């Protein structure tokens, strides 16, 4: 007779899951803050609230643009009860991200930024924030889908968005979405009113690029071609057919009429694999390559349309800003 299988009890599995979530929260909880954004209007002082998280020891933090946009003053409440005035370093409404800074006389607890390109559907996702004024609320779930697109306040589509079923509510905006190693994988940004367990976060790799731009220029100046798309795998057969060494590309889901991409003849379902000789493996690659250096300049997109490889000429314009 063979050895009896060693079945782990449900209680043991639940205990392991609970311990994972609890230890993750303990590692990052001191870095998650509440944000109060005050606005002065003819009707008096108004305000809104949101969440954010410190990502450097010297007081820089990430949140959503919609939390802080138009604020005349910003205040940050840390978990130890410390209140600090915050300065807006810069914001990017087109990805709904903003960077703030608070003064720091000592090194502050901060989070580690992860790598959203390594995410898998089904892995555990943990959200921390301040929904409806309840500070440091923790919810957990799974990564439900990757590569979603959402419209930003400017009308531009935010690509490479993470969908999760970790519950979010008003006030969670700007808080971190974490993996089980306490690394930030996304910035919580949106819920769908009336839907259940459908919530979204801007991928942390997109946030890293935006942070670099805001640190360098105080704003994000990007080339705009007018499409939304998702990272999709590419078979070895297709890669060999195209003569490229990459395992993925960007599948176009929508082309805006009259945009540079539309005028160039790009169509939905086209697969973008390169621009100006540089490989385009992911949506992040495409966003990174469409920087200010390509505004108003002739560029060449390498695509696969069905079984036909094509080169399309496109001239990016400067992205609209609000």
TrEMBL record:
Residues 231-281 form the PDZ domain. The keyword Phosphoprotein does not apply. Keywords: Hydrolase, Protease. PROSITE patterns: PDZ. It comes from the Bacteria. This is Trypsin-like peptidase domain-containing protein.
